[in-house]
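Supplementary Note 3. Input sequence used for the single-chain structure prediction.
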Amino acid sequence: MTAGATLSRKLSIVFALLLLACCGASAWLQMRSSGQYEQEVVQRLSGGLAARIAGSAELMARGGLNQDAVRALFGKLMDVNPSVEVYLLAPDGRVVAQDAPPGRLKRERVDTAPIRRLLAGERLPIVGDDPRGTGTRKVFDAAPLQVDGQDAGYVYVVLQGEAHDALAANVSADNVLRTTLWSMALVALLGLLAGLSAFWLITRPLRELTAAVRRFETDGIEALAREAPTFERLARSGGEIALLGDAFARMTQRITEQWRELTLQDQQRRELFANISHDLRTPLTSLHGYLETLLIKSGTLDEAERRRYLDIALGQSRKVGRLAQELFELARLEYGVVRPEKESFALADLVQDVFQKFELAAEARQQRLTPDIAPGLPVVSADLGMIERVLTNLLDNAIRHTPSGGRIEVQLRAAEAGVQVQISDTGPGIPNELRKGLFTRPAFMSGGRGDGSGGGLGLVIVQRILQLHGSDIRLVQQAEKGAVFRFQLASA
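The predicted structure, written as discrete structure tokens, is reproduced below.
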């Protein structure tokens, strides 16, 4: 069973129950109001009947009431109007005279509180006890009875007696049956119409969402771009369906962006592997060639040639070792093995320490290392070892790609949220074809900026370290300078 069929069935049951409940409540209210209306009409029309009976001269005899005359009068009245029942009550409500068949009288006393309310003129209908029923209350008429100027009780007339109840039950049974059948037919018709309309209105957006998700299931990620207008239209429709459509729209956009990012990362990873393979193959091939030459010509080479071959092989071995170390370091950064342990330190002191590491290399190339540090810089909050690695990679890259007699400058300036670092050189700069993927893929060993040494994974490692610190590195363009790298560190 599908989800749509389950929802339709639930909606059908809910609509049917609601319509039945509404119809039943309406019928009950109508019957109740109709009954009260009938009682009020009968009680108003019969008002004064008990008073006329109480004023009849036939009820009196010498010394009190004429019991035979009372019974005979009551019998005539009930013959003329079978729906009424007449009783004579004592002041305390006790039945003292009546003309009920033997055994039909169920109550010997009647509550006089409703009688006093009726005589006081309260709002009708007012119901009182039925002497022929143990728990029923009916509309009545009553009047005080006086004998020789003294209160002798009440004339109590039940206006809807047993004969009325029997006839009403027979007549109402047929009416109730017909009303019930018509009500059921009406409820079924209204339920069908309301259910079909509600299903069409409510489930249409759900069907569209279901169809879109199924197309995504069959067609893959390409279907999300095509279904974006559907999700946006559902998000503007309003209500809970709009919330669901908006959630699907956001999910669609997020999945599409994540898929593009994964595709880009996968492409970058493929390029990374290709570049690393290239970077490794070149020095390994050279190393293998020179070692093989030493092995084959070991008897014919003089000491100077043997020494030159060994120096070249050792240099290529260093390149392979450096690349392997960088690759290992990048893997640790990518997979979260290394986390920054931040501390507060002065970035100017760290720059001076890194300069000392490169003094000999710069002097050997006849290069100048120039610090340009603004006074009053705030201390920064970062991982000291990682930031030292960033400066080391950038300075090493600048020294290797700056020609003899060039200058490498490290500039520190106060920024809004910390310290801005800029490292520049006077080399040939970064070729345009390498700028796009400069921080996402390694430079070829045979590429680089002119000296054939290449950049390896140094800039990729720099980018990842700064990302872990919530920062980013940019390549900026400045006149009369080669490569200019700029990043920022947050103050403590």
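The CA atoms of residues 358 and 396 lie 8 Å apart. Residues 49-158 form a domain with the Beta-Lactamase fold (CATH 3.30.450.20).
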